[in-house]
Design brief:
Length: 188
Amino acid sequence: MRGTISSVAFESGDRFVVGNWHRSPVGRLVDVMWVTTDGTRRLLVNDERAAEFITSIYAFDEVHVAPLTVDGDATHTHVSGHGLQLSMTAGRRRPIPFPRPRWVTRWVEAPIARRLMGVETYGVSPTGVREWYQSRGWSWITEASGTLDGVDLGEVVPIRKPVGVGFSDPPERPSIVTVHVAIHPPER
């Protein structure tokens, strides 16, 4: 998979992880993993194919399929759909331009990412899928806004509570990460 992962939280208590995938096993894919103020883990997608693929890897309490648009690049993300509007702008991008073998991601990058950003780069999902997350660059979000059904979600805050859908949570500090993800389904 190739794309960006944007993560942000608001004063309302809502936490979001937005996937904008230009390449995936099911083609172009956009998704919003949303943890509501009461802790409900929701997946927002725009088609059943995306819902089936993502739920084959990650755990959610609810899945909602309806029109969803995610646009952006390495320093901007905009989301519209399901009554949700999100806009994120990040500062200076810190590139990691070179590809690495998966063993480097698992054994070398993992302790560095864990210490610097509080994230895991390798792990096994709740459904048994092994994943390697190779960052190609990242930047901290400097501005963000969000509304749900026209109601402002408040100021941006650190992501201190877990999202809890996979083996890792996003960094505490809201960010946009350009990433390549390798996935291996469980052996049957």
